[in-house]
Design brief:
Elements (H helix, E strand, L loop, with lengths): L26 H31 L3 E8 L11 H7 L3 E7 L4 E7 L13 H18 L3 E7 L3 E8 L2 H13 L9 H11 L5 E6 L7 H10 L1 E8 L1 H4 L6 E5 L6 E5 L3 H24 L3 E6 L5 H17 L1
Parallel strand pairs: 3-4, 3-6, 6-7, 7-10
Antiparallel strand pairs: 1-2, 4-5, 8-9
Helix pairs in contact: 1-3, 1-4, 1-9, 3-4, 5-6
Length: 317
């Protein structure tokens, strides 16, 4: 019985935030946006800029042309073959690879508005998305966002600029979704049709979803897909709190379970572990990297591990 009810269903009703009004944004949301901007900007400038560039930009340069040497040019850029032929110094000019597009696909379903430690999963997802968006803008890349539940809730097309990132952070905090369920297949299909050029797609979710292997495979064939799994400790282990009334945040269905039963807790833990292994196997098979973040921790260490592991892998190739 317990296997039918996922970890996401252990929750209390989260207090509803005030929906964003068409004519303005609540002052408390604006304060949160400013705080997140200051915090993430500091992280990006001091920690993530180099890591992001080394992973996603590569060398970041492609050959453009040869032109005559000018004072201030680096000696190492001299093209000695052309210099010998023309009998005066010439240098190779390079241009930075075209800007990248980063797309943040963020799950706002009912299971995301849950947390038992420091914050809700949705709040952790917002901070992580803010860090990635700030990193992209800092490197002159375009960034967009798609918010989904059991439908496409909100889309911000990829653009550049600080004001654009602030809008993304604001919407992540203030947007009140209509749906409560999860339909990741629709979200993945929408992104695949929306993006005309290769992009980096971060899917931020608890991945409590059915079979998404086919659409995920199609998306990963054309784009660089990264799965960001957001978890809470109570979703890994059922706490012993006696008879508990639990509610599915996506359907509203309630039921009672005896959490003091070792058999119940063992069955629950086994089901969660199986689902986690199935997800990891799927991601490995599709060559999709996974970044695991938890509500009891932060986003810095998981992102740094991801960036450095990917850079190490690139050097080995």
């Amino acid at each position: 019985m317990i296997g039918l009810f996922r970890a996401r269903r252990l929750r209390k009703e989260a207090p509803k935030r005030t929906p964003e009004k068409p004519m303005g944004v609540p002052p408390e949301i604006l304060r949160q946006v400013k705080l997140i901007e200051l915090r993430t900007r500091g992280l990006v400038n001091s920690v993530f800029t180099g890591e992001y560039r080394s992973v996603f930009k590569g060398q970041g340069m492609e050959f453009s042309e040869v032109r005559e040497y000018q004072p201030g040019d680096e000696v190492r850029s001299i093209d000695w073959n052309v210099t010998a032929r023309m009998r005066r110094p010439f240098v190779k000019r390079y241009i930075e690879e075209r800007e990248l597009t980063v797309m943040l696909v963020v799950d706002l379903s009912g299971s995301e508005r849950f947390g038992t430690v420091k914050r809700f999963k949705s709040e952790l997802a917002s901070e992580l998305a803010a860090v990635l968006a700030m990193s992209a803008i800092r490197n002159n890349d375009r960034v967009g966002v798609l918010l989904f539940t059991d439908r496409i809730e909100h889309v911000i097309p990829p653009r550049k600029g600080r004001r654009h990132v602030l809008r993304i952070i604001r919407d992540l905090l203030a947007f009140e979704p209509v749906g409560r369920g999860t339909d990741m297949v629709t979200a993945i299909d929408y992104v695949a049709k929306m993006l005309n050029q290769k992009a980096i797609v971060f899917i931020v979710s608890d991945f409590l979803e059915g079979d998404i292997s086919h659409p995920l495979k199609i998306l990963a064939q054309r784009h660089d897909v990264v799965a960001v799994t957001v978890e809470d400790p109570s979703e890994r282990d059922l706490p012993d709190i006696g008879i508990a009334r639990l509610m599915d945040p996506e359907t509203g269905y309630t039921f009672e379970v005896d959490t003091s039963s070792p058999n119940v807790r063992e069955a629950y833990s086994g089901r969660v572990a199986t689902e986690r292994e199935e997800r990891k196997h799927l991601l490995r098979r599709l060559a999709i990297d996974e970044v695991a973040v938890r509500t009891e921790g932060g986003v810095v260490e998981p992102l740094l591990r991801f960036f450095r592991a990917r850079e190490t892998r690139a050097h080995r190739r």
